[in-house]
Every structure is written in structure tokens, then in C-alpha cells.
Amino acid sequence: MKLDLLTGLYVFMLAAFIGFEVIRRVSPLLHTPLMSLTNALDAIAVVGAIILVGEHKSNLAVILGTIAIVAATSNVVGGFIITDRMLRMFKSSGPKKL
Amino acid sequence: MTNFIGTDTLIEITYLTATVLFVLSLKWLSSPATARRGVFAGELGMLLAVVGTLFHHGIVDYKWIAIALVLGTIIGVPLGNVQMTAVPQRTALSHAFGALCVTLVGTSEFYLRAPDIPPFMMAVLAMEVILGSLTFTGSLMAAGKLQEILPQRPITYKGQNFVNLGLLSAAVIVAGVLVVHPEQMRLFPVLIIIPLVFGVMLIIPIGGADMPTVISLLNSYAGLSAAAMGFVLSSKLLIIAGALDGSSGFILSVIMSKAMNRSFTNVLFGGFGQIQTSAAAAQEARPVKSATPEEAAGILASASKVVIVPGYGMAVAQAQHKVRELYDSLTKRGVDVTFGIHPVAGRMPGHMNVLLAEADIPYDKLLEMDLINGDLPQTDVALVIGANDVTNPAARTDAGSPIYGMPILDVDKARTVMVIKRSMAAGFAGIDNPLYYLDRTLMLFGDAKNFVGNIVRELSGSDGHR
Predict the structure, then answer these.
(1) What are the b/e assignments for B122-141, b being 16+ CB within 10 Å?
(2) pLDDT at residue number B284
(3) For residue B43, is it within any domain?
(4) With 70 as the cut, is the pLDDT of residue B277 above it?
(5) B330 lies in the same domain as B436
(6) Which residues of B touch A98 (CB under 8 A)?
(7) Catalytic residue among B389, B410, B432, B447, which?
(8) Strand ranges (E), B317-465
(9) What is the pTM of this model?
(10) Predicted local confidence at residue B242, as pLDDT
(11) For chain A, N or C: smaller number of CB within 10 Å?
């Protein structure tokens, strides 16, 4: 499924606009979790690395791809864990509701 | 082939669902009440996309994929469980990992496809690899500085900007040659090595106070490089995730730069630290008023409105839990206690909020600069803990000051100002702070954690007073 340049640019531009509008609304309280969450989401690059390693087109690709999967997976796992840990700490002083 | 069309469509559907979940994830992050749902949406999207990918028809060998996924998880779990004070360096490190992944995939793709690479593809590939490599070393350097493995003071030398711009132009020229002549394969390693060096050179002159901006900027680069990888691999999912990450980093960089009244170029090519150090050296010693924990406790106990302004010094001294005790003790006495958080307080965006939330301080007591500045003139005591430049009134009044024009927390408008500080030695940025010499200012000399602890002890010792 090849993606032509123009379609790709449309996708990129629209996603950047959505990102801009959505992220602008994130409270400054949560800027640190925002960064660790987007970092975890960005590690979706692991998908590209998985295909690269799985297709086994060259040894170089397998070696570099394997390292890439390790790096991205650690971002996914670590990023989600720490974001959730941080968010669990944010409590309101208002009446407790669970 | 017909039976594979079904699988491919299914995989595309998992990607589409993941995209929707990613956008929702960021949308839910907008408020603390829904934020954890956002993380869950992100996790679900990620799981769907990864599992979907495993069914990709081109995959013939699962061994290394499995090994790498397990190894990555083993590394990721401790990285997700670091102490909250280590979050800035952890974040920098994860930018480095993300960039490493992108660079390695880009490199493999080049050698798999060369020499038949169309010009546009080569251009994006070059962008992917350049941004990826410079983010990799740049983020490692930032993490090293934050972890204090590397010297934190900015290192500047003559002609620094010339060297940096030269390196960047060289990388762009090599990329240009490869776009026209992709068969010049031996040029490709140069395309990685130059940005690797550039990344190091870029961070060397950056001081600790500039870290929030730099981390945001590196975040943006990491996102853009991932989006470029999406173009190379024809993956819409990756383009979108990269664009989201890129715009997030970009927005944060803009907020951080505005909060310091500086431009990106000024942060990256400023040589800020040097100018300030020389300016501070020219200052002569002026008298200040100081107070003991006992006196400080007395003033705090008789106040009706107290604003606490934390800075990086609170994080270094690990004083946030003592600050929480102070908050409890004062609140119990009926004192209204809030916190004034400057956007660049600490070493990354939102750093202070996370530390105070860790200490169980309710988030509705953590107020942004604009809100708290309206309150400060009616405040009895502003207590500054380990913050310096973000409270410096010279930013408002002294056109000659290096931080002139930077929005600050107007603590000098409070009736009494108390500043906890180790000594009168110039702070990290090395700028003298006129706040310390005001008549209404009391300097509380000592370690933030001990001093706050002593105030709390004094307060609990005199419980019968009111």
C-alpha cells in the first residue's frame, strides 16, 4: 500500500493541526505527563522496526531493526508506566469522589 | 494473494483505530480528571497497532522480534519506575531512544533501497536520519547534564555558532548530493556522523535554566523525525503519531521560550550563561535582612494568605515532602496557602507540579503565573523556595538585565517576602536578584529541606498560640 507524497503531506498537515488544537488545551499542570505520553505514543515507530526485522531482507536490517525495537519498546513500556504513575498522584482538594 | 488482502485491510483497520485512540488520548489529557483514561486509550491503541503489525504478511521470522520486545520491556519497566525527581533526565533519555529507533530504521531502509531511491524519498530519508541522529546525541547530552554526569554550566567558546552552523550546513549539503546522486552510497555514513557531532555541540552551551526549552525542542525533533520515517515507510499511522508528538514539542517550546522572553535561536545560539556571569561579578555586596526558622514560623502563623513559590532548588533539596508538612500545618491554622508555578520553574515543563503532586498537595492549589500574579499584592507572605530568576524584579525594571522582559512571579508585591537560599552566592544563571535587598524581604539561609522542616517544628511547637 504505497502512499503518494501529496496524500502523505495532507495527512501530516491535518494531524499537526489536530495535535496543535488538542494539545493547546492541555493544562500546564500536566505538561510533564504530556511529554512522557506523547513520547510513548511516538514510539509507535516500533511498528516500522518490527516489519523491518520480520521481513529479514538483510542481516544489517535485522541487527539495526532489533536494536530499534528494543529502544522503542522501552519507550512504550516506560512511557506509559511513568505517565500513569504521575497522573495517579494528581488529586483535588475538593470533596473526594471515586 | 487474495487471502492476504483481507489481512492487510484488517491491519489497516487496527492502525486506523489506533490513530483515533491516540487523538482521544491527548484530548483526555487536557484535564487531571480524565487524564488517566487518556493513558489507557494510548495503551490500547499501541497494543492494537503492534498486534496488528505482527500479522503483516511480509514477516517471515519472529525470533528477533520476540527477543527485542522482551528486552525492550525489561529496560522499559525500571525506566518507568524512576524517582519523580529524575523525571527530566528520564524524559531526555526517552527522546534519545525514540530518535535512535528512527535513525536505525532509516539507515536500514537506505541500504535496502539504494541506489534506486527517488529524489523525494531520499530527501525525507535524509531528514529522518539527520533529525534522528542529532536528537539522539543531543538528548543523551541533556540527560547527562540533568543527571549531573556532565558539567551543568554552559560551555561556550569563540566561534561556537560558526562551528554549529557550519556542521548543519555540511549535513544539508551532503543530503543534497545524495538526493541527486543516491548511488554515492559511501556518503551516507557522513549523513549520520555530522548530525551526531552537531547534537553534542548544540547542547554544550546550554545551561540548566534553559533545559525546559531544550527538552521541548528535542521532543519536537523526535516527533518530526518519526513523521519523516512515516513518509519513508508509507505509514499514515506513523506520520500522524510523529505529527502529534512534533506539535506537542513545538507548543511546549513556544510556551517555554515565551516564559523566558527569548526566541528559539536565542536559547540555542545565545551564549547566555557567559554574559550573566560577568554581569554578576561586577556587583558588590549589599546588606540583606535574614531571619531564623522561629521568626519565619511566627510571621507565617500570623499571616492569612501565603503563596509558596517553588523552584529547582526545592527539587535538588528533595524538600517537597517537608513543604507538604508546612502546607498542612498552615492550612490547619486557617491560613490560605497556594503555590505559584512559573512555566520554566525546574528543569522541564510542568516539573514543579509533578513534584508537588507527588507530595500529595492538591492540584487545585497549584496556580499558574497569570493567576497568582493577580493574588500576590493581597498576599501576606510570599515564600520562595529554591527559585531565583523567575522571581527577579529586574526583569520588569532593569532594561540592562539579561532577563529584562521575562515574565516573572511578582513576589516583591507581597507584604513580606521570604527567600530560602543556601547563601548569597549567585544562582545558576549568575544574575544578581534585587529582590533580596528589599526592605520587606527576609533571607532564610540554609538547606531548603532542613529549613522548611525547622519552620514546621516551630509551628507545631507553638500550636497553643491561636
Answers:
(1) bbbbbbbbbbbbbbbbbbbb
(2) 54
(3) no
(4) no
(5) yes
(6) none
(7) B389
(8) 336-341, 366-368, 381-385, 416-421, 441-445
(9) 0.88
(10) 94
(11) C
C-alpha triplet B358, A42, B202: angle, nearest 5°:
85
Residue A96 lies in a domain: no
Q: How many domains does chain B divide into? A: 2
- Asked if the interface predicted TM-score (ipTM) of this complex is over 0.90, the answer is yes
Residues in A closer than 8 angstroms to B25, CB to CB, are 37, 41
Q: CATH number of the domain that B368 lies in?
A: 3.40.50.1220
Rounded mean pLDDT for each run of 10 residues along chain A, 98 residues in total? 80 93 89 93 93 91 95 95 93 62
Domain range for A58 is 29-89
- In chain A, residues with a C-beta closer than 8 Å to the C-beta of B327 are none
State the pLDDT confidence band at B430, using cuts at 50, 70 and 90.
Answer: low
B446 CA: distance to closest CA in chain A (Å): 29
Establish if B416 belongs to a structural domain: yes
Q: Quote the CA–CA distance of B19 and A19 in Å, as a whole number.
A: 12
pLDDT at B463 over 70: no
Does the residue A19 lie in any domain? no
Q: Are residues B250 and B364 in the same domain?
A: no
Do B90 and B139 belong together in one domain? Answer: yes
Q: Is A23 contained in some domain?
A: no
The interface residues of chain A toward chain B in range 34-63, judged by CB-CB distance below 8 A, are 34-58, 60-62
**Residue A16 covered by a domain:** no
Q: Which of A8, A26, A44 sits opposite B241 (nearest CB)?
A: A44
Longest pairwise C-alpha distance within chain A: 60
